[in-house]
Amino acid sequence: MPEVQAEQIKCVFDRPRALADRPHHYCPGCSHGIFHRLVAEMIDEFGLFDKTIAIVPVGCSVLAFNYFECDVMEASHGRAPAVATGIKRTLPDRFVFTYQGDGDLASIGMSETIHTAARGEKVTIFFVNNGIYGMTGGQMAPTTLEGQKSTTSPAGRDIALTGPPIDMCTLLSSLPGVAYLARIPLTSPKNLNTARKYMRKAVRAQIEGLGFALVEALCACPVQWGMDPKQAIKHIDENVTKVYPPGEYVDRVSGNGKDKAKAS
């Protein structure tokens, strides 16, 4: 093949400036790396590199400070929304986001999540829902599906004992302080493009001072699910989305003045 001159090479895809150039610690097939990149793309796209403060709690994201090239503060398990509230009120010109898993956000930190949304705090939450406690041993989470096996539900989740899975988008959509709320599975290039669209609105909700915003990503945890990565993606598309329908649940960013009572 003829030698290609350097000036003929065009870069069409590159690492975002806000994403650190180092390997992740996440398990093979985990969706955290994909979501990290999307978050970093938003920081770059909106020119927020020098204004961003991230809050990461305990969980698989506990080492996320290694991967984002911005100021990052660690929070106690479940307390990231409370920490974000304090930082945003103290430094209102900063873009403040939390990056949280489902055990952290919907169980240990359920109170912080609901009250932060109810107050309409001008922060943005990027919510990883993989339906299980990933880092601490594969225990059942509030989002674990009915019948799903975990280390604390080896026979499968029994809703007669534990109640059904908690749908955070539906739960939060009733609160008037919420400016934007959406859910998307990170399972295909098409869905990643939709995730970008939703995440742009979540960032705008904060920049424009509209209120609380959250984007929920349905993510894979192949190791704790006992699946290979391909099976995990198929499981999300065929089963998880039936329990957690994708779409926009609240949209006060688009300027149409309408909320969405259910996923579109």
Task: Please explain how this structure is put together.
The mean pLDDT is 92. Helix 3 (102-108) packs across helix 4 (110-118). Strands 2-1-3-4-6-5-7 form a seven-stranded mixed sheet, sandwiched between helices. The chain starts with 31 loop residues before the first helix and ends in a 13-residue tail after the last strand. The chain has nine helices and seven strands. The chain has a single domain, classed as Rossmann fold, CATH 3.40.50. The chain has 264 residues and is an alpha/beta fold. Strand 5 (178-185), helix 7 (189-207) and strand 6 (212-218) form a beta-alpha-beta unit. It has helices spanning 32-45, 80-90, 102-108, 110-118, 159-162, 168-172, 189-207, 222-225, 229-243; strands spanning 52-56, 71-74, 95-101, 124-129, 178-185, 212-218, 247-251.
Assigned CATH superfamily: Thiamin diphosphate (ThDP)-binding fold, Pyr/PP domains
- Rg (CA only): 18 Å
Number of domains: 1
Indicate the CATH class.
Answer: Alpha Beta
How is the biggest beta sheet arranged?
A: 7 strands, mixed
**CATH topology title:** Rossmann fold
- Share in β-strands: 15-25%
Question: What is the string of SSEs from the N terminus onward?
Answer: HEEHEHHEHHEHEHHE
Instruction: Kindly name the structural category.
Output: alpha/beta
The pLDDT mean sits at 92
